[in-house]
Write a structure and sequence with these properties.
Elements (H helix, E strand, L loop, with lengths): L11 E3 L18 E3 L19 E3 L19 E3 L19 E3 L11 H4 L9 E3 L11 H8 L5 E2 L2 E2 L2
Parallel strand pairs: 1-2, 2-3, 3-4, 4-5, 5-6, 6-7
Antiparallel strand pairs: 7-8
Organism: Dendrobium catenatum
Pfam family, one: LRR_4
Keywords: Leucine-rich repeat, Repeat
Protein backbone atom coordinates (compact mmCIF):
# COMPACT_ATOMS: atom_id res chain seq x y z
CA UNK A 1 0.00 0.00 0.00
CA UNK A 2 1.72 3.12 -1.23
CA UNK A 3 0.87 6.77 -1.90
CA UNK A 4 -2.37 6.74 0.08
CA UNK A 5 -1.26 9.72 2.16
CA UNK A 6 -2.31 12.06 -0.67
CA UNK A 7 -5.95 10.94 -0.35
CA UNK A 8 -6.62 13.23 2.63
CA UNK A 9 -10.44 13.14 2.31
CA UNK A 10 -10.79 9.40 1.76
CA UNK A 11 -13.59 8.02 3.97
CA UNK A 12 -13.71 4.33 3.02
CA UNK A 13 -11.01 1.88 1.97
CA UNK A 14 -11.88 -1.65 0.87
CA UNK A 15 -8.84 -3.77 0.03
CA UNK A 16 -9.85 -7.35 0.74
CA UNK A 17 -7.97 -10.26 -0.87
CA UNK A 18 -4.90 -8.32 -2.00
CA UNK A 19 -2.03 -10.14 -0.26
CA UNK A 20 -1.25 -7.04 1.82
CA UNK A 21 1.34 -7.77 4.52
CA UNK A 22 1.55 -4.47 6.45
CA UNK A 23 -0.26 -1.19 6.79
CA UNK A 24 0.79 2.44 7.07
CA UNK A 25 -2.20 4.74 6.87
CA UNK A 26 -0.71 7.84 8.49
CA UNK A 27 -2.29 10.97 7.15
CA UNK A 28 -5.75 9.49 6.53
CA UNK A 29 -7.50 11.53 9.21
CA UNK A 30 -10.98 11.39 7.57
CA UNK A 31 -11.12 7.64 7.03
CA UNK A 32 -14.22 6.08 8.64
CA UNK A 33 -14.23 2.50 7.31
CA UNK A 34 -11.35 0.18 6.46
CA UNK A 35 -11.63 -3.39 5.27
CA UNK A 36 -8.47 -5.44 4.85
CA UNK A 37 -10.11 -8.83 5.13
CA UNK A 38 -8.41 -11.91 3.71
CA UNK A 39 -4.95 -10.46 3.33
CA UNK A 40 -1.64 -11.48 4.88
CA UNK A 41 -1.52 -9.13 7.84
CA UNK A 42 0.28 -10.37 10.94
CA UNK A 43 0.05 -7.09 12.87
CA UNK A 44 -2.62 -4.51 13.64
CA UNK A 45 -0.12 -1.67 13.78
CA UNK A 46 -0.54 1.10 11.24
CA UNK A 47 -4.02 2.36 12.09
CA UNK A 48 -3.09 4.49 15.15
CA UNK A 49 -3.42 7.83 13.36
CA UNK A 50 -6.80 7.05 11.78
CA UNK A 51 -8.60 8.83 14.60
CA UNK A 52 -11.94 9.14 12.77
CA UNK A 53 -12.12 5.39 12.14
CA UNK A 54 -15.53 3.93 13.02
CA UNK A 55 -15.37 0.47 11.42
CA UNK A 56 -12.34 -1.79 11.07
CA UNK A 57 -12.56 -5.18 9.35
CA UNK A 58 -9.45 -7.37 9.63
CA UNK A 59 -10.88 -10.89 9.52
CA UNK A 60 -9.10 -13.79 7.82
CA UNK A 61 -5.52 -12.67 8.32
CA UNK A 62 -2.69 -14.00 10.48
CA UNK A 63 -2.89 -11.50 13.34
CA UNK A 64 -1.71 -12.96 16.65
CA UNK A 65 -1.95 -9.88 18.92
CA UNK A 66 -4.40 -7.00 19.31
CA UNK A 67 -2.32 -3.81 19.33
CA UNK A 68 -2.36 -0.23 18.09
CA UNK A 69 -6.07 0.25 18.70
CA UNK A 70 -6.15 2.36 21.88
CA UNK A 71 -6.18 5.67 19.97
CA UNK A 72 -9.21 4.70 17.85
CA UNK A 73 -11.77 6.19 20.22
CA UNK A 74 -14.47 6.50 17.53
CA UNK A 75 -14.39 2.80 16.68
CA UNK A 76 -17.88 1.25 16.73
CA UNK A 77 -17.23 -2.01 14.85
CA UNK A 78 -14.15 -4.19 15.19
CA UNK A 79 -13.94 -7.45 13.25
CA UNK A 80 -10.81 -9.51 13.94
CA UNK A 81 -12.42 -12.89 13.44
CA UNK A 82 -10.53 -15.81 11.91
CA UNK A 83 -7.08 -14.76 13.01
CA UNK A 84 -4.61 -16.22 15.52
CA UNK A 85 -5.58 -14.20 18.58
CA UNK A 86 -5.13 -15.76 22.00
CA UNK A 87 -6.35 -12.79 24.04
CA UNK A 88 -8.21 -9.48 23.94
CA UNK A 89 -5.95 -6.44 24.37
CA UNK A 90 -5.63 -2.72 23.68
CA UNK A 91 -9.34 -1.90 23.47
CA UNK A 92 -10.14 -1.00 27.09
CA UNK A 93 -10.20 2.74 26.23
CA UNK A 94 -12.67 2.37 23.36
CA UNK A 95 -15.95 3.77 24.68
CA UNK A 96 -18.04 3.59 21.49
CA UNK A 97 -17.50 -0.04 20.55
CA UNK A 98 -20.86 -1.68 19.73
CA UNK A 99 -19.87 -4.76 17.68
CA UNK A 100 -16.89 -6.95 18.52
CA UNK A 101 -16.17 -9.95 16.29
CA UNK A 102 -13.56 -12.32 17.76
CA UNK A 103 -14.90 -15.66 16.53
CA UNK A 104 -12.63 -18.34 15.08
CA UNK A 105 -9.54 -17.42 17.06
CA UNK A 106 -7.69 -19.16 19.89
CA UNK A 107 -9.04 -17.27 22.91
CA UNK A 108 -9.03 -19.77 25.77
CA UNK A 109 -10.82 -17.94 28.57
CA UNK A 110 -13.38 -15.24 29.34
CA UNK A 111 -11.33 -14.30 32.37
CA UNK A 112 -10.37 -10.63 32.17
CA UNK A 113 -12.76 -9.79 29.30
CA UNK A 114 -14.54 -7.32 31.61
CA UNK A 115 -11.27 -5.36 31.98
CA UNK A 116 -10.22 -5.78 28.33
CA UNK A 117 -13.48 -4.28 27.06
CA UNK A 118 -14.13 -2.00 30.06
CA UNK A 119 -14.57 1.21 28.05
CA UNK A 120 -17.48 -0.17 26.02
CA UNK A 121 -19.08 -2.20 28.78
CA UNK A 122 -22.29 -0.12 28.56
CA UNK A 123 -22.23 0.25 24.77
CA UNK A 124 -21.44 -3.23 23.44
CA UNK A 125 -24.52 -4.81 21.81
CA UNK A 126 -22.97 -7.62 19.74
CA UNK A 127 -20.12 -9.99 20.50
CA UNK A 128 -18.95 -13.04 18.58
CA UNK A 129 -16.64 -15.48 20.32
CA UNK A 130 -17.86 -18.77 18.87
CA UNK A 131 -15.26 -21.26 17.66
CA UNK A 132 -12.84 -20.18 20.40
CA UNK A 133 -12.03 -22.51 23.29
CA UNK A 134 -13.69 -20.03 25.69
CA UNK A 135 -17.07 -20.47 23.97
CA UNK A 136 -17.37 -23.99 25.34
CA UNK A 137 -16.90 -22.88 28.95
CA UNK A 138 -19.83 -23.39 31.34
CA UNK A 139 -22.16 -20.38 31.57
CA UNK A 140 -20.56 -18.79 28.51
CA UNK A 141 -23.61 -16.73 27.48
CA UNK A 142 -24.67 -15.98 31.04
CA UNK A 143 -21.21 -14.65 31.89
CA UNK A 144 -21.17 -12.35 28.84
CA UNK A 145 -24.68 -11.06 29.60
CA UNK A 146 -23.65 -10.24 33.17
CA UNK A 147 -20.54 -8.35 32.05
CA UNK A 148 -22.20 -6.46 29.19
CA UNK A 149 -25.72 -5.34 30.19
CA UNK A 150 -26.64 -3.95 26.74
CA UNK A 151 -25.84 -7.12 24.77
CA UNK A 152 -28.48 -8.01 22.21
CA UNK A 153 -26.51 -10.67 20.39
CA UNK A 154 -23.98 -13.34 21.37
CA UNK A 155 -22.69 -15.17 18.33
CA UNK A 156 -25.75 -15.99 16.20
CA UNK A 157 -28.14 -15.83 19.18
CA UNK A 158 -30.22 -12.66 19.12
CA UNK A 159 -32.20 -11.61 22.21
CA UNK A 160 -33.59 -8.36 23.51
Amino acid sequence: MENLETLKNLEELWLGRNRIRDVNLCGLKCIRKISLQSNRLTSMLGFQECLGLEELYLSHNGIAKMEGLSTLENLRVLDVSSNKLTGINDIEKLTRLEDLWLNDNQITSLEGIDVAVAGSKEKLTTIYLEHNPCASSPNYSTTLKQIFPKLQQIDSDIFM
